[in-house]
Amino acid sequence: MGHNCSALTGDSGKKEEMSKVKIISTSHVKPGKMIGRKECQLVTFDLPYLAFHYNQKLLFYKCGEFEEKVEKLKDGLRVVLEEFYQLAGKLGKDEDGVFRVEYDDDMDGVEVVEATAMEIGIEELAAEDGTASFKDLIPYNGVLNLEGLHRPLLSVQVTKLKDGVAMGCAFNHAILDGTSTWHFMSSWAQICSGSNSVSVSPFLERTKVRNTRVKLDLSLPPNPVNGDANQGPQLREKLFRFSEAAIDKIKSKVNSTPPSDSSKPFSTFQSLAYHVWHHVTLARELKPQDYTVFTLFADCRKRVDPPMPESYFGNLIHAIFTVTAAGLLSANPPQFGASLVQKAIEAHNAKAIEERNKEWEAAPKIFEYKDAGVNCVAVGSSPRFKVYDVDFGWGKPEGVRSGSNNRFDGMVYLYQGKSGGRSIDVEIALEAGALEKLEKDKEFVLEV
């Protein structure tokens, strides 16, 4: 287990980590021009995420000249927010109690926190498997999206490190998904690198995809449970790095005998999804008759009818589920599990999306983690996001990670691998005992 243990040793270890990060100042950044009053109703795709936590991303860069870079980031932010102004707004409700994003020129805008952590170095962050030492580098730990009613929808913490800069971002997940998050981040980086304008404007008309007005009677719980309260088993996270060679090996193994019903070959995603699902299920030592659920958060921009542009700004994702018994998953060849994943994805067409939305609108249900399913493996983010291209003018990031929010037993985040090409980074949160077994599973780790 190596250095992971230290991150979890009681409170004294935590306090020591805490003291490394010192907040220097907090300011707010608004769009560089007057925009006036704007209101945009949240739609059926957005609403289920109101009780998720803010979505946290951490990027770290090797570079110096901290103060200069913070000013450059703020200047770029003023420009990029002229188009992505919804991020500078707040959540609100209209007279019928329907949630919406509201923007007005007198709102605070995006929160920018400046901090220093001169004892933390880039190498240390790059080597970190868990998220314990990231916690203080990213704002809004354990904060629910619903709190966007009275706090910024985006908070950015820029921390000066021993030999670089860490950029921790907390995005309100009720107003945007991963595709929109990285569209915003790459646009911001483009401006900071010298572009005068955003190359692809965000498509802000959410109601074009769905216009049903859903009233939700939602208010914050009296004492929101903090994200890291000790509920249930002790979770550990680990980053598994799969090289191109490992990804190719996984894909060719899953495709070695084509599925009987002559469906398409399995994609990289489907092959990797099966690989993770299968090995996590083994590591959990489930009984053959125990059910295990595989969940993925699928981008629906091209699935809806009519399709929406890639630049659609909002949440246009659905959680797609498939389930089988642990015994069937392990006793059958890889094609069995991969076919379950493939069929679930292919079945989620415009008609299925329409039915799901109607069903939800008739009886709205706000997601919480425990809804992901029994013995679940849930995959979020995507290796297709060009996270290593987010260059603000001082080079590509040395690392891109998720924060500690929105993690539960079985949550998996996929990222483009640092080495580029077809390599993929797989971040997994699991109950500590199961994670230890997974780390020792040679067939899973595949050190090619």
Relevant terms:
single chain, 448 residues, alpha+beta, Chloramphenicol Acetyltransferase, 2 domains, six-stranded mixed β-sheet, 12 helices, 15 strands, globular, disordered N terminus, CAT-like_dom_sf, BAHD acyltransferase DCR, Sec_Metabolite_Acyltrans
Question: Can you offer a commentary on this structure?
Answer:
- By secondary structure, the chain is an alpha+beta fold.
- The protein folds into two domains: 187 residues, Chloramphenicol Acetyltransferase (2-Layer Sandwich); 206 residues, 2-Layer Sandwich (Chloramphenicol Acetyltransferase).
- Helix content is 28%, strand content 23%.
- It contains twelve helices and 15 strands.
- The strands form three sheets. Strands 1-6-7-8-3-13 form a six-stranded mixed beta sheet. Strands 9-15-14-12-10-11 form a six-stranded mixed beta sheet. A three-stranded antiparallel beta sheet has the order 2-5-4, with no helix packed on it.
- Helix 3 crosses helix 5, helix 6 crosses helix 7 and helix 7 crosses helix 11.
- The protein is globular and about 60 Å long.
- The two termini are 21 Å apart.
- The N terminus is likely disordered.
